Amino acid sequence: MRGLRIKALFALIACxxxxxxxxxxxxxxxxxxxxxxxxxxxxxxxxxxxxxxxxNLGRFAPQGLVGLGFEFCTANSTARRCRPHKWAKxxxxxxxxxxxSDTNSTVTGYTLGLGIELSRYFHxxxxxxxxxxxxxxxxxxxxxxxxxxxxxxxxxxxxPANLGGNNLNAFDGFPLPQAPGLPGSAGGFVYGGxxxxxxxxxxxxxxxAFPLNLxxxxxxxxxxxxxxxxxxxxxxxxxxxxxxxxxxxxVTWSINPDVGRITPVGRYSAPALITAxxxxxxxxxxxxxxIGSATIALHP
Length: 300
Prior knowledge:
Elements: H1 2-15, E1 28-38, E2 45-48, E3 51-54, E4 63-71, E5 73-76, E6 81-84, E7 91-99, E8 107-119, E9 122-136, H2 138-150, H3 160-165, E10 174-175, E11 196-213, H4 214-222, E12 225-227, E13 230-233, E14 238-240, E15 242-244, E16 251-256, E17 261-262, E18 267-269, E19 278-286, E20 290-298
Parallel strand pairs: 13-20
Antiparallel strand pairs: 1-4, 1-11, 2-3, 3-10, 4-7, 5-6, 7-8, 8-9, 9-11, 12-15, 14-18, 16-19, 17-18, 19-20
């Protein structure tokens, strides 16, 4: 029962939509996710135990993702925050690199695309990718197609037209040719050039990501910064302070000593009469990020 409650809690967090007018702490996010390539234009091959073998890349095999997401937003210079555009509140762009197993490369592709923000903590991604794949070298491709065409009985499972056109999975399971000059090479398929070469092929990537806002995490770890940090005011003068933190809407303001007045949004008004120079400390308190302070010098 406890496990079901935890799963339900995570599902609720992931599917909670952004509220109207809700601000994001920053327009740039670090993305971690998982996905797969869909309908690639070429098969990724490797050589294994004397055969050419198709890898799982592009066969809906899961790929890890690390990248950056960028919000469509306008900056609020006072609070250092990002407010989503009305026309694109749920959209973002992203750039990422993918990683996976059972492939020829550690980095299995690079992607640019769009993200749909189902919640602040859950994005759906789709993008255009460049994928490094192992492909038959052109010379070997032509030689293999010609040999299979002339020896259809020995290679009954392979179509010379598919080999010549390098169609998807055409070379999967194809036996390696013999090198020139080796014993037994006189009557078999002999080829002395490169068999596979690395190429970048286009493809489409679909996945999900869990964003981490770097500035929000930094503010949560370091507390609240109040700007301006120091100000000098005369009688009846005023100054508006800003709390630079991940959740400026959750900040409460106070002054010490109780000279003058400060509003809930951080606007301080000096008293109408100041008889001597004195110092007032303005404090911003955030339940999630701690406290920060600024100093006001009052002068007659």
